[in-house]
């Protein structure tokens, strides 16, 4: 794989594999079968090997799947596990070696192979921050072989978030949650994310070459129609942004040409 090229593979919900020639990372993969999920894991946790780093944006089962992390600690013994530092004790209790447990907070960075991970605070309906200064929810800017990816985790937009994203330079690909939030979900303790319109307008302000909607396919009462997101992108931003509605396990190879995606 040449420079300025990376392969992305969507795993459902906010799950994403990112690969270069030398490095593979897996973000927010919900790999455990569970009652109520609409799509079963495309790769059984036991079969996912050769991963250099597993990333989780926050401690909800569809983002940090503790059952799967316990398996990966054994099947990928040299892998790093990257997560909000707030959850260090829970991650270590999964059997992950302390030297492989990389807790990040906003502003934190970690390099593995030719991939660099940067952490930004996320506001999963609320911009929570503990007395210890640690954020329980993160989003990541991933620099992979010259390709810059924004994985938003679970978040709504908050004051200052756009400037944090833009501080890394041009974003090539964004994966954004679109499932929204409402009173019904809040009363069921399902804290929310951007609506599809809010996510589209964030993409419009960031102007990535490609945007991918996420968090729409997994649970019947906590999803959204990605077609509405794609239509809104087209209506407001046209060909300025490519909107890709992904298929599970579809490989998307992103390559910059002459400095552009």
Description:
The protein is 19% helix and 25% strand. The chain contains 6 helices and 14 strands. It has a single domain, classed as Ribonuclease Z/Hydroxyacylglutathione hydrolase-like (Metallo-beta-lactamase, Chain A), CATH 3.60.15.10. The model has no long low-confidence stretch (mean pLDDT 94). The longest helix is centred in the C-terminal third of the chain and has 12 residues, at 226-237. It has helices at 66-75, 88-92, 161-166, 183-187, 196-206, 226-237; strands at residues 5-10, 16-19, 24-27, 53-55, 80-84, 101-104, 109-112, 115-121, 138-144, 147-151, 173-177, 210-214, 242-243, 251-255. The protein has 261 residues and is α/β, with parallel strands linked by helices. The chain is globular and about 50 Å long.
Would you spell out the secondary-structure blueprint of this structure?
Blueprint: E1 5-10, E2 16-19, E3 24-27, E4 53-55, H1 66-75, E5 80-84, H2 88-92, E6 101-104, E7 109-112, E8 115-121, E9 138-144, E10 147-151, H3 161-166, E11 173-177, H4 183-187, H5 196-206, E12 210-214, H6 226-237, E13 242-243, E14 251-255
Parallel strand pairs: 3-4, 4-5, 5-6, 10-11, 11-12, 12-13
Antiparallel strand pairs: 1-2, 1-14, 2-3, 7-8, 8-9, 9-10
Helix pairs in contact: 5-6
Characterize the quaternary organization of these chains: single chain
| Strand neighbour order, sheet with most strands | 6-5-4-3-2-1-14
CATH topology: Metallo-beta-lactamase, Chain A
The secondary-structure element order is: EEEEHEHEEEEEHEHHEHEE
Number of domains: 1
Helix content: 10-25%
Computed structural class:
alpha/beta
Silhouette: globular
The CATH superfamily appears as Ribonuclease Z/Hydroxyacylglutathione hydrolase-like
What low-confidence regions span 5 or more consecutive residues with pLDDT below 50? none
What is the highest CATH level, the class? Answer: Alpha Beta
The major β-sheet equals: 7 strands, mixed
Give the terminus-to-terminus CA distance: 16 Å
Give the radius of gyration: 17 Å
CATH architecture: 4-Layer Sandwich
- Overall mean pLDDT score? 94
- Estimate what percentage of residues fall within beta strands: 25-35%
């Amino acid at each position: 794989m040449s420079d300025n090229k990376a392969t992305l593979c969507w795993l459902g919900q906010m799950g994403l594999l990112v690969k270069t020639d030398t490095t593979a990372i897996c973000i927010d993969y919900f790999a455990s079968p569970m009652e109520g999920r609409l799509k079963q894991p495309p790769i059984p946790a036991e079969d996912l090997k050769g991963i250099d780093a597993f990333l989780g944006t926050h401690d909800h089962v569809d983002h940090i799947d503790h059952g799967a992390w316990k398996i990966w600690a054994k099947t990928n013994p040299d892998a790093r596990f990257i997560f909000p530092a707030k959850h260090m004790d829970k991650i270590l209790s999964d059997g992950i070696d302390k030297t492989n447990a990389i807790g990040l907070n906003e502003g934190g960075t970690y390099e593995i192979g030719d991939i660099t991970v940067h952490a930004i605070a996320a506001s999963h309906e609320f911009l929570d921050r503990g007395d210890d200064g640690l954020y329980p929810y993160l989003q990541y800017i991933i620099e992979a072989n010259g390709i810059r990816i924004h994985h938003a985790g679970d978040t709504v937009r908050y004051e200052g978030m756009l400037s944090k994203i833009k501080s890394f330079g041009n974003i090539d690909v964004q994966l954004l949650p679109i499932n929204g939030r409402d009173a019904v979900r809040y009363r069921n303790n399902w804290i929310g994310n951007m609506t599809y319109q809010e996510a589209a307008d964030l993409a419009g302000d960031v102007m990535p070459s490609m945007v991918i909607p996420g968090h729409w396919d997994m649970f019947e009462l906590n999803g959204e129609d990605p077609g509405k997101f794609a239509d809104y992108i087209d209506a407001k931003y046209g060909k300025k942004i490519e909107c890709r509605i992904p298929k599970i396990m579809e490989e998307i190879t992103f390559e910059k040409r002459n400095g552009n995606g």
